[in-house]
Every structure is written in C-alpha cells, then in structure tokens.
Automatic annotation (TrEMBL):
Binding site for 2-[(2R,5Z)-2-carboxy-4-methylthiazol-5(2H)-ylidene]ethyl phosphate: 133-135, 164, 184-185
Pathway assignment: Cofactor biosynthesis; thiamine diphosphate biosynthesis; thiamine phosphate from 4-amino-2-methyl-5-diphosphomethylpyrimidine and 4-methyl-5-(2-phosphoethyl)-thiazole: step 1/1
Catalytic activity: 2-[(2R,5Z)-2-carboxy-4-methylthiazol-5(2H)-ylidene]ethyl phosphate + 4-amino-2-methyl-5-(diphosphooxymethyl)pyrimidine + 2 H(+) = thiamine phosphate + CO2 + diphosphate; 4-methyl-5-(2-phosphooxyethyl)-thiazole + 4-amino-2-methyl-5-(diphosphooxymethyl)pyrimidine + H(+) = thiamine phosphate + diphosphate; 2-(2-carboxy-4-methylthiazol-5-yl)ethyl phosphate + 4-amino-2-methyl-5-(diphosphooxymethyl)pyrimidine + 2 H(+) = thiamine phosphate + CO2 + diphosphate
Major enzyme class: transferase
Cofactor detail note: Binds 1 Mg(2+) ion per subunit.
Record-stated family: Belongs to the thiamine-phosphate synthase family.
Source species: Desulfomicrobium apsheronum
Pfam families registered for this protein in UniProt: TMP-TENI
Cofactor: Mg(2+)
Binding-site list for 4-amino-2-methyl-5-(diphosphooxymethyl)pyrimidine: 36-40, 68, 107, 136
EC assignment: 2.5.1.3
Any one cellular-component term (Gene Ontology): cytoplasm
Protein name in the entry: Thiamine-phosphate synthase
Binding residue positions for Mg(2+): 69, 88
C-alpha cells in the first residue's frame, strides 16, 4: 500500500492561474506522497493528455497517481489507482475493468459507507468532509473529529480525511485516526505550493510520531 499521508487533490480552478503540472511538480518537491488528478469539467482527451503528463512527471518519484472518477482515463495512462464516489461504478464492476493491481479508493461520508467500502474490497477510504469547506459544498454535514474517530473504530482500511484541512488542523485529523490527509486549497491555492506541502508533511510526520 502506498504512503497516503499527504494526498494532493488537484483543482485547476483554484490554482490561481498556475498549471496543474506546475502545482504537482512543486507539491511533489515539497513532499506530497500521493497525487489525485481531479478534473470535473475538461474534455476527455484533455484529461487523458494531462494525466499522461502527470504520470511522466511522477516516474521515479515513488508518488502514485490516482485518477478521480474516470476508470477509462486511469486505464489509458496506466495510473496507479482510481478514486470513486458513492454513485460511481460499484467496486466489483470497477475491479473487472481495472484488474487486481490498480488501487481503488472510495469516498465515504459516514460509518456505513466505510464499512461497505471495506466489505466490497476498496483499498482505502477517503472520508469527507472532515470539516466544512468552500472547495466542495454539495457534501454531507462535516464529520468532525468525532466522526473520524467513529469511522476509525469501524474499519481497518487506510483512511484519508478530506475537507477543510490545512496546517492548523492536520495534526488533529491524524490523531483522530486518519492515516493521511487529502488537501486541495491548502496546496493548490497556496502562494508557494512547495512550501505548503513541506509544512504539511512536517506536521503530519510529527503527529504520526506522537500517535
Ligand atoms: N471531497 C470532499 S471535500 C473536498 C473534496 C474533493 C474538497 C476539499 O478541498 P479543501 O480545499 O482541501 O477543503
Ligand atoms: Mg467522484
């Protein structure tokens, strides 16, 4: 299982005019351990081309590339994984397409979602939103740290918390039971994405040592 401790989720609209490739390059230099390419509005061939470019950028870094929502794009570029939501393809069907080796991450908003994802064979669960966030507003109510702890108690899969996480609260999310944190704006909208990633990585390392 790859290291999911600092998981970058891209968003071109929040990248302050910088390219996703530049953001990913800086974030990896700063220490992100996993990259999810998330494109909600671009044409499929553009998504594939971008994914391939990110794939090439990540060669030799040990940082896996996960594709949001699109199994076809993940397969086209030989990504390391795909991240699916509660209304995307069921894991069993996704697995038929991906084969056994590609990681499948599932978004969960409650204990029941996480238990089901584990029973169905997910490789990790993204739990969201941990805190309310302007980046994504069509979400369930925030889980809070108690919600994180409840999911931690219910499943043994790796858990990645997402939603409203940044340097001020990353440590408490790890201490509540997450194996990693996923961030969008804390890195893609930072004035210096490399520095932002490096700071978060240091915080996460320290929180893991203490927990
Ligand atoms: N899924 C649940 S919350 C979220 C996603 C993609 C957005 C998190 O963004 P930010 O800026 O890290 O709060
Ligand atoms: Mg999705």
């Amino acid at each position: 299982m790859p290291d999911l401790s600092l998981y970058l989720v891209t968003d071109r609209e929040l990248s302050l005019g910088r390219s996703t490739l530049d953001i990913v390059r800086a974030a990896v230099a700063g220490g992100v351990t996993c990259v999810q390419l998330r494109e909600k509005r671009c044409a499929t061939r553009e998504f594939v081309a971008e994914a391939r470019a990110v794939r090439e950028l990540l060669v030799g870094t040990g940082v896996p590339l996960i594709i949001n929502d699109r199994i076809d794009v993940a397969l086209a570029v030989s990504a390391d994984g795909v991240h699916l939501g509660q209304t995307d393809m069921l894991i069993a069907d996704a697995r038929r397409l991906t084969g056994p080796d590609m990681l499948i991450g599932i978004s969960a908003e409650c204990v029941a979602d996480a238990i089901r994802a584990q029973a169905e064979g997910a490789d990790y669960v993204g739990i969201s939103p941990v805190f309310a966030t302007p980046t994504k507003t069509d979400t369930a109510p925030a889980l809070g740290l108690d919600g994180v702890a409840a999911i931690r108690a219910a499943v043994s899969l790796p858990l990645v918390g997402i939603g409203g996480i940044g340097p001020d609260n990353a440590a408490e999310v790890i201490r509540a039971g997450c194996d990693g944190i996923a961030v969008v704006s804390a890195i893609v909208s930072a004035p210096d994405p490399k520095e932002a990633a490096s700071r978060l990585r240091t915080i996460i390392r320290a929180a893991k040592e203490l927990s």
